[in-house]
């Protein structure tokens, strides 16, 4: 049976049951036999993470859905209003909508009339991101594509009457070099099939076999995303979701089997334990090196993943704060997935666009210290706060990224051990080599150039490239 616990459904059976194209196994690039992964965590966790993901370092998350219509409080609007009955949400509805107005009534108001996927793709490219992850379906159950498993609760049958996933995927792939990824919520708050399974302590599996799993096979086969960002386990174990069965198919037989990466949200107990890269929690930024590849998913709007009309300017992280997040994350071996929330009519609000373009401008100067780097032996400096290190293996250079320009004009670096006559120090974006003095085991002190604000290579964080140091 499709989705039975602990078994990967045969590819032919998947195709026949879901009406999808049947893909026969192919040999990996360069010939040889492709490894086969069993539907067990032991086997799946042993799969090497495709190299592109670690090299990318920076992606953009997009939370978009029916929750973008009320655009009040949070993308969890439906839950907070109907289930928890939080006072601000109840009062908002009473003040602005007629009695009897349901959440489903927001569906036709999700219009996306200003959605221009080419414009979105151009903004994403300008951000310096190397991948994008779009919410194909959040916990509300509304799919941004015309899923045959969503009845009429999708963007093709209601609201925009457009396949929003397909449009963005096409534009991203035609206009940028970004990897295209999709977020998918396993559970749905108020789906009666899920609620019935939950009432049965997940001993029945009507919802995953008829809704959630078929959707996953559908989006992988139809859009070939290189990231499957799973979320929302609904307090159910991975056996209920048949996560290992799906992942075995994804890694063995899917059209993206060689390049796809996945996260760690596949059922109770899997987060920060199983899967491709770890997320551990929302806005996870440990500040130290982790032994497993991880990602810091966080929001420009500190209070919400979805667009909020009631957000204040102070709620939005500044570009200085965002650069700090990126630098800290990459220094400790992680990727940064920075979230924006478009409006119900399909606009990327100007404050989000500004932050994205500012990040792109910073990466235009400092990208060598971010893309394709590895963690150095020290992640941050012991002598001067706000200095973070990365290592560029191709050039053999250590990058010291400092977030505050010292008033004294000199920067003390306690970690690098210089070699007289060999070590060179360069400020990225400035032509001349910098002078420095060795402090023995206490590091080096670097004389920064005397520059006016307009002469600085960038405005929000600077990179020193150090060669021949230990």
Automatic annotation (TrEMBL):
GO terms for cellular component: extracellular space; lysosome. Residues 379-467 form the Alpha-L-fucosidase C-terminal domain. Residues 35-368 form the Glycoside hydrolase family 29 N-terminal domain. One of its GO terms (biological process) is glycoside catabolic process. Its EC number is 3.2.1.51. Pfam families: Alpha_L_fucos (PF01120), Fucosidase_C (PF16757). Residues 1-26 form the signal peptide. The record marks 297 as: May be important for catalysis. GO terms for molecular function: alpha-L-fucosidase activity. Keywords: Glycoprotein, Glycosidase, Hydrolase, Signal. It catalyses: a neolactoside IV(2)-alpha-Fuc-nLc4Cer(d18:1(4E)) + H2O = a neolactoside nLc4Cer(d18:1(4E)) + L-fucose; a neolactoside IV(2)-alpha-Fuc-nLc4Cer(d18:0) + H2O = a neolactoside nLc4Cer(d18:0) + L-fucose; an alpha-L-fucoside + H2O = L-fucose + an alcohol. InterPro entries: FUC_metazoa-typ, Fucosidase_C, GH, Glyco_hydro_29, Glyco_hydro_29_CS, Glyco_hydro_29_N, Glyco_hydro_b. Gene3D superfamilies: Glycosidases (3.20.20.80), Golgi alpha-mannosidase II (2.60.40.1180). Belongs to the glycosyl hydrolase 29 family. Homotetramer. Alpha-L-fucosidase is responsible for hydrolyzing the alpha-1,6-linked fucose joined to the reducing-end N-acetylglucosamine of the carbohydrate moieties of glycoproteins. This is Alpha-L-fucosidase. It comes from Strigops habroptila (Kakapo).
């Amino acid at each position: 049976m499709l989705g039975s616990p602990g078994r990967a459904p045969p590819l032919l059976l998947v195709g026949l049951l879901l009406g999808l194209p049947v893909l026969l196994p192919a040999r990996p690039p360069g010939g040889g036999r492709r490894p086969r992964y069993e539907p067990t965590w032991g086997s799946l966790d042993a799969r090497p993470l495709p190299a592109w993901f670690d090299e990318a370092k920076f992606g953009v998350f997009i939370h978009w859905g029916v929750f973008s219509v009320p655009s009040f409080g949070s993308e969890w609007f439906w839950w907070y209003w109907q289930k928890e009955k939080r006072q601000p949400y109840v009062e908002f509805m009473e003040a602005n909508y007629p009695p009897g107005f349901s959440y489903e009534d927001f569906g036709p108001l999700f219009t996306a009339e200003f959605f221009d996927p080419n414009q979105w793709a151009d903004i994403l490219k300008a951000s310096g991101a190397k991948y994008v992850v779009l919410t194909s379906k959040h916990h509300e159950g509304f799919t941004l594509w015309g899923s045959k498993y969503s009845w009429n609760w999708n963007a093709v049958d209601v609201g925009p009457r457009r396949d929003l996933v397909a449009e963005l995927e096409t534009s991203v792939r035609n206009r940028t070099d970004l990897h295209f990824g999709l977020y998918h919520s396993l559970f749905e708050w108020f789906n009666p099939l899920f609620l019935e399974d939950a009432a049965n302590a997940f001993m029945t599996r009507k919802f995953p076999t008829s809704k959630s799993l078929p959707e996953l096979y559908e989006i992988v086969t139809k859009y070939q995303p290189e990231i499957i960002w799973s979320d929302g386990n609904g307090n159910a174990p991975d056996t209920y979701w048949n996560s290992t069965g799906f992942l075995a198919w994804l890694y063995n037989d899917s059209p993206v089997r060689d390049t796809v990466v996945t996260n760690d949200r596949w059922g109770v107990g899997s987060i920060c334990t199983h899967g491709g890269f770890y997320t551990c929690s929302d806005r996870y930024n440990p500040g130290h090196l982790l032994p497993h590849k991880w990602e810091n998913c966080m929001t420009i709007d500190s209070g919400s993943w979805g667009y909020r009309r009631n957000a204040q300017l102070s709620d939005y992280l500044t570009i200085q704060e965002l650069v700090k997040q990126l630098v800290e994350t990459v220094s400790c071996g992680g990727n940064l997935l920075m979230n924006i929330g478009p409006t119900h009519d399909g606009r990327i609000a100007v404050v989000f666009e500004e932050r994205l373009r500012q990040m792109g401008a910073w990466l235009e100067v400092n990208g060598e210290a971010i893309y394709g780097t590895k963690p150095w032996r020290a992640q941050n400096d012991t002598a001067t706060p706000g200095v973070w290190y990365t290592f560029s293996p191709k050039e053999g250079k250590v990058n010291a990224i400092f977030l505050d320009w010292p008033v004294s004009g000199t920067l003390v670096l306690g970690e690098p051990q210089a070699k007289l006559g060999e070590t060179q120090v360069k400020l990225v974006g400035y032509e001349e080599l910098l002078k420095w003095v060795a402090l023995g085991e206490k590091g080096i002190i670097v004389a920064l150039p005397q520059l006016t604000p307009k002469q600085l290579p960038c405005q929000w964080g600077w990179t020193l490239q150090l060669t021949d140091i230990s």
